[in-house]
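FAQ

Q: What does a record look like?
A: Structure on top, sequence underneath. For example:
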């Protein structure tokens, strides 16, 4: 599709991920169509997305009833349904993963958000999810909280693919990069013959402008010397943050430190927001 802008982005080396998942997307063949026609290269998910998917359709009703009959609790039902969808999506993307030799074709599943400030709990849950899903094109989403950073390092050191989420600022991105590098350095010596873990850093661009723009609006309304500067910056802080993060990315993964590891560990991607697909 020559006129498809998403396909054009793919030709420029950009990978478009879908920030949405639901059962109908999988069973209707719509996901396959998005992959084939739009070049969608991965999917992210989170509990809010699954809440909307499950509550907004009857596609899960039979499975829910069966699990209730088995005596499963709410948490187990959620995990079962979400993992089923993630595994189905991973199967759809597996051919892309194979063709691109692991550069594309990933599906993300998030650890319980209640563990965002619990390093040990995050590590344990990520290990459990990774083992349960058992697919090379799965990413476990781990928040870039102060407690999440050491968890990221530990999980990478164990060969677990990590999608660093809840990432809003440059200083925390630097910490996430350091956690990745430290994890790879710990991983290499005892995993010499297995595939290196993959990682991405997911910036929440829209959240940055949502926070900063109201502050800039106040400066604009006050007038004065800073008003024009505030007008120039309005709506641009997130883009500037993404550009700065990308420069850090290029500098870090062309450094001598990383070159020593590169033979076994490709540089992680940096994402700056995902394509959100909404059904009409």
């Amino acid at each position: 599709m020559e006129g498809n802008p998403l396909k054009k982005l793919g030709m420029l080396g950009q990978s478009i991920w879908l920030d949405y998942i639901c059962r109908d997307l999988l069973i209707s063949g719509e996901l396959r169509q998005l992959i084939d026609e739009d070049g969608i290269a991965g999917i992210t998910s989170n509990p809010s997305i699954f809440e909307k998917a499950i509550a907004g359709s009857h596609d899960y009703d039979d499975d829910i009833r069966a699990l209730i009959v088995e005596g499963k609790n709410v948490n187990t039902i959620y995990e079962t349904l979400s993992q089923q969808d993630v595994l189905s999506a991973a199967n759809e993307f597996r051919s892309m993963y194979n063709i691109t030799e692991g550069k594309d074709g990933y599906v993300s599943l998030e650890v319980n958000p209640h563990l965002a400030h619990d390093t040990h709990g995050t590590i344990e849950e990520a290990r459990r999810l990774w083992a349960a899903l058992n697919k090379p094109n799965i990413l476990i989403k781990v928040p870039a909280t102060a407690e999440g950073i050491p968890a990221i390092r530990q999980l990478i050191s164990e060969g677990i693919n990590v999608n660093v989420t809840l990432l809003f600022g440059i200083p925390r991105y630097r910490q996430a990069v350091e956690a990745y590098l430290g994890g790879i350095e710990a991983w290499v010596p005892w995993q010499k013959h297995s595939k290196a873990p993959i990682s991405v850093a997911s910036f929440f661009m829209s959240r940055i402008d949502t926070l900063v723009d109201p502050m800039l609006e106040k400066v604009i309304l006050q007038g004065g010397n800073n008003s024009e500067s505030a007008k120039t910056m309005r709506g641009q802080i997130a883009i500037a943050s993404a550009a700065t993060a990308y420069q850090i990315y290029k500098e870090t993964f062309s450094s001598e430190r990383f070159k020593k590891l590169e033979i076994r560990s490709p540089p992680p991607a940096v994402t700056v927001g995902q394509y959100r697909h909404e059904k009409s």
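Q: Is there anything notable about this one?
A: Residues 5-201 form a domain with the TIM Barrel fold (CATH 3.20.20.70).
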